[in-house]
Amino acid sequence: MKTEDQAWRALQAHASAQLSADFAGRVLRAAQGPSLASWRQLQAHAAARLRPGFAERVLRAARQIPGVPSLLDQLAFSAAAAAVCVLAVVFVHARNVRLEDERNLASWQQIAQQVEDLDNAR
Amino acid sequence: MESTSTTALADLVRRAQRGDEAAQRELIVSYQHRVAGFVYAMTGRSDYVEDLAQQVFIKMIRALDRLQAPAQFESWLFRLARNTCIDQLRRQKLRRIFQPFGEEHENIPEPAGAVDTEELDALRHALAQLRPQDRALLALVQEGRSHAEIAEILSTSVAAVKARLHRAREHLREHYQPPHEN
To answer: What is the pTM of this model?
Structure first.
């Protein structure tokens, strides 16, 4: 009997030796979730990543980098670009049509002249 | 006391909106630590903190004149911070798709123990398991934003915020274990 007790104690001791030193704390932390202190540590860790003179660097960068155009500006620019493209297409088309008409007219005039010459020759 | 500080903040924001550089600097200095904490909670990367925080404040200065209610400055600032972080995470995801073997170090998370304490490591590890939207939600709560403010920031309803927050807290608790215990 005594031996059995000893065996149980030994098993218990072996099992409890597997637990980490702050076992209770860890269980409580896992059950309760992160404490406010953990969040504060996270913020402090992040804040420490900012090098001194951060505000100055931001202000300098804000002055130097050209601003991103607003959506309205981008729409206006797109509309203007589209209008220029349409005008260019209309202009080129009108010019081609006019040149074609002139060429056709010249051909017809030539044919008419030839017909007239033939009539006169008869 | 609360209303006095709200009024003082609104005055400071109005001065900054008029282009007063001292007021702009004061706003940055007042919020840089909180924004840095928010960025870190969202990305889990120390090396992104300064760069992203800088982007947030540059956007803030550029867009400040479009803020119509100076009293809502804090909500507006954290909306900028959230959108900046989400954009960064999306870009990172796209880069991972198009350049699977490029900039490979970029996606390696900070190893456990790289940051100060076990609690902080555990929190960082737990946050990394959540979706960015849930991280934003929890970080906004830590920033003291009310449910109504968070609903406005996320363009959703208060009921949806409460439900999502409940789920996010559960997930965080589930994953909140010191890394070497996993």
So the answer is: 0.68
